[in-house]
Structure formats: C-alpha cells, structure tokens
Amino acid sequence: MAKAATRQDQNADDAEPEDQAPERALDEGKLFDYITGRAVKDNDKEQVRQRIARAIIHEYGIAAEDMEPDFKVKVSGKNRKLDIAVFRPGTEHTAENLYRAVIVEKEPKVGTKGAYRMRDPDEASKEFAVLDAVMSEVASCNYGLWTNGLEFFFFQKEVTRFDIWFKPIGDWPMGDDTIGTREAASLARMRPADPAMLRTAFRRCHNYIHGNEGMPKDAAFWQFLYLIFCKMYDERRRGEQRVFWAGAYEPFDPAGQKEIRRRIAPLFEEVKRAYPELFKGNEEITLSDRALAFIVSELSRYDFARTEVDAKGAAYQEIVGKNLKGDRGQYFTPRGAIRLVVQILAPQETETVLDSSCGTGGFLVEVLNHLNRTFYAEKQLKAGDENTQEFISIRDRLANYATHKLYGADFDPFLVRAAQMNVMMAGNALGHLYHMNSLEFPLGHLPGVKVAKDEIPLGSIDLIMTNPPFGSDIPITERTILEQYELARRWERQGEGFVMTQALKPAVSPEVLFIERCIQWLKPKGRLGIVLPDGIL
Predict the structure, then answer these.
(1) CB 356 within 8 A of CB 513
(2) How far apart are alpha carbons 334 and 112 in whole angstroms?
(3) What SS3 state is found at 179?
(4) Residue 506 phi/psi, 5° resolution?
(5) CB within 8 A of 16, min separation 6: which ones?
(6) Residue-by-residue DSSP string for 92-107
(7) 309, 310, 312, 316: CA torsion to nearest 10
(8) DSSP letter assigned to residue 191
(9) Which among 184, 237, 478, 513 would be 20 to 30 A from 131, CA to CA?
C-alpha cells in the first residue's frame, strides 16, 4: 500500500464513514429522504434535515409513517411551513394531531482554525418565531426543535391559566413521551447514538468549549476528554445510580448548573484514582458551570456501551482530527485503508495485535470493531436485537480482548493518551499502550519501555498493523538505534548476492527500519500490515 512521503505519519482515521442509507442508487445531486423514502434534491439545508429525520427515527423511536416534511400549518390566517412535523402515532396527518414541530436551517460555516460560538436560547430567540407561532396556535403541539445542524434548541410548551410558555429543555423525550424529572433523571433511559448525531454532539461540545469558553483547541480537547472519561466510568458502575446526568431544565438554570457540577466533580476524582496510568492526579475541570452543564446534557442522553464501535470511533476522530491534523505535523491513515488492512489480516480473538506507531489508535479501534462484528455473527445476532445477557457477554469479551491482547506504542505522549481514550470508548476497557520509541526498543528512557519489555518482547506478537513515520526528511541518525538493524549496515555485493558488513550507514529512513523492527516483533508465521511509501519494496 503506497503513500507519498510526509514529515510524520500517524495512523488515525481521517474520513467520516458513510451513514447507513438504504441500498439503492441515487442520481447525482439527490439525497434519500428518510421520511418519505423518495429521492430529494441535495442542498445544505436538506442535509441537515435528513440528519435530524434519521435521528428522530433511530434515536427517539418515532416511526417515519408518523412524520411529514414541509407540512403547512395555518397560523393567524397565514400558512407556516414546518420542515418536519411529527404526529401522534397512527393518526391522520392533520394540525389537530401535530405534537412535535421541527424547523431546520442550513449548517453555519466554521473556519478550519476557528470555532462557532454557540448561542443560548435568549440570544437566538429571533430564530424561533415560526416555531413559537405554530406551537401557540396548535393546542396538541407540545414539543419543538429549532436547529441549524450545530445548534439545537429543544422546547416544551407549558400552558398556564393566563399564558403559554416555551421552556427550553435539554432534549426531547422518547417517542412514548417519557422524560426524566429532576428527581428521576438519573434513572432516565439512555439511548444508542445515531452515528451522524454522535459526531454532531462531539463537535457541539468541543465548539462550546473552544468558542464559548475561549480555550485553546488543545485545552478544550482535554477538558472534553475528561468528561468523556467521566461518562464512560459512570456507565461501568454496575448496580449504582448514575451520576453523569442532567435534568431536563438544569442546563438553563444557574442553580441547576451548580447541581450538575456538584455531581461531576467527585466523579472526576474517582476517575483519576481509577486510571493512574493516564492521570497525574492534578488535572481539573476548569469549565464554567454553564459549559459543564451543556456538555453533560449533550453526552448523558447516550448509552455509549450500546452505541456501535464504529460510530464512537468516527465521532471521536471528528474531534481528534481537528486538534492534531496540521497543528502538530501528524497525518492520518484514511479509514478505508485501515479497514482493508484489518480485513486482510482478519485478527482472531486468540491473537495479539500491536500497532508500533499507534497515533490516535485507528488500527486498534478497527480491530475491536472487527471482533465486535465477529462476536455478533457467531451468535447470529444483529446489533440492537440482543437481550441484556447477550449484550453483556459480547461487551465483556471485547473488553477482555482489549485488556489482554491489544497493544500500541507511540513516541508522542499526547497521542498515547488520545489513543487510550479511543480504545476505551470502543472496547469499554484500556489496552496496553506505551509511551516509547518503537525503533529504540528495547532500549530507551521513555516511561513505557520498562513495562513493554515484559509484556511485548521482540518475537512475541501475532499481528502488527501500522502506519509508521516515514520520509527522507526525518532520517534516523542515532548510532544506538542503527546498531540494532541489519538494514542500517552497508551491504557489499558478493557473487550473485550481497553480504552484510559491520559498517553502519550515517542515516537511514525510518520506514526501512520499521519494516525490520516489525518483523523482529512478530512470532514465526506472524502477519504484518504496514503502510509504506511508493517504491520501497
């Protein structure tokens, strides 16, 4: 597999996966309408509408048959158009049966280096005129949503004796109208995330920290990751009441925001104690109460354990890619290339896998995705159809694999931590990831070397999948490294072949040494999938 030489290549995935649309050919310039089943014209607004329609169906459990696009409602003698109208289940599509209304705008453009400042409901109030008018006029319409694909404003109607109020809420209830009260929100149902909506949620959270809190991208990234860790840890606390939750109205009330912080602060202290290999112990959540409440409200609605491995990986990469690509000289392996390598090598549950230049963990997560699909196929199950016992069995098998068979190494400590989070989200457990220089191993002073010498000595790995740093502009010149490699020595022609001498070359491109190092790391009959520059073979 060839790729043009770059300054430094790390294997993470850069491309977004295709959403699971029906298998049919669409004409150019057309989109599939999840509500009507027909082809519609592709444009910026329609892309947002279809994302929302899909989420209403898959996340909220509302049937497409109970929805209608471009539904007109007469308000004060004028026709008002709803981009998506939701009707009471099984009823006729009339204004009298309308109970949820959606207004959609196209997604705002965000610069590659900037961030979109997220508005609160008061700041965006002018956007809600049509929604307010329809909800006021139609007695049965209890819930509304205005969105531009990045900002989401959910409303619940409250009718008093003298007035009608539209209260901002953190999320819509499920299709059966169940919504957690402030007292019962910790027991409210979480739901598996739709892939596109989870990516959007991650973007919204990072944008809020970067754009509204004014934090640099790196700082915003880590604040977001701290809360992801809290969310994952909270889901794993079996038999205990959830702590990572937000009541429907808490994010919009200063007292409610403080209650959220009161729950999250001790949870983060637990997380740091539980993962001493990832946290020094002095980390702090420095977000404002408002920002913390926003992110907890965004993430708490989803059941990460029941969300597809691939969806979580793509959402995570949405944030990682924007923080690393271009800023630190890292470049990422396309998702399709990662999948191809994993499919060809077809890792088994009994085999160890190593990525010697793991970057943000693209190959490692795809291995877990591959095994997850394998486990479901073995049980002849489709994700989402399993019962609780079957789900726990598969989840525990995946976690056990990550804990005992999955290994990675990288020279950049930032990437090692980022990769661990990626593995944690995918496998519900930490893998064995080492901060070290794989070419220098088993020598070197970095903290991962000592443990790696015991856990993954040379000659101990079944499969290696990697995209190492390569290029003539980053040659390896350290003698202590070059001395470990036959390919770092000069070879002299002798008869029909070549003989290795003891003379070292002054510099060798890293990809040459990585080929030899990977072969050294493999067991006999081990398998290697490696990305290399064109022409090296």
Answers:
(1) no
(2) 19
(3) coil
(4) -70, -25
(5) 199, 314, 318, 335
(6) -SSGGGEEEEEEE-PP
(7) 130
(8) B
(9) 184
Tokens of 279: 């946290």
Q: Is 28 exposed, middle or buried (0-12, 13-18, 19+ CB in 10 A)?
A: exposed
Q: What is the mean pLDDT of residues 2-16?
A: 38
The pair of structure tokens assigned to 288 is 């404002």
* pTM of this structure: 0.78
Bigger pLDDT: 287 or 8? 287
Confidence of residue 211 (pLDDT cuts 50, 70, 90): confident
Q: Hey, what amino acid is at 326?
A: G
Find the distance separating the first CA and the last CA of the chain, reported in whole Å.
10
State the pLDDT at residue 112: 53
Residue 335 near residue 365 (C-beta atoms within 8 A): no
Identify any residues that bridge with 41 across adjacent strands, giving them in sequence order.
30
Q: Which two tokens stand for residue 496?
A: 């029909």
Which structure tokens are listed for 36?
């009507």
Eight-state DSSP code of residue 213: S
Closest CA to 519 of 448, 463, 455: 463
- 521: region left, alpha or beta (phi > 0 left; psi from -120 to 50 alpha): alpha
3-state helix, strand, coil in the chain (%, to 5): 40, 20, 40
pLDDT digits (tens, 9 = 90+) for 214-256: 888 778 888 988 998 899 889 887 666 889 999 888 999 999 9
Give the lowest-confidence range in 92-101, 263-272, 327-336. 327-336
Residues with Cβ < 8 Å from 2, sequence gap 6 or more?
A: 532, 533, 534, 535
Mean pLDDT, residues 416-423 taken together: 89
How many Cα neighbours within 13 Å face the side chain of 463?
Answer: 20
Q: Residues 313-347: pLDDT tens digits?
A: 888 877 776 665 544 344 578 888 999 999 999 99
Task: Give the closest residue to 377 by CA, choosing from 361, 397, 362.
Answer: 397
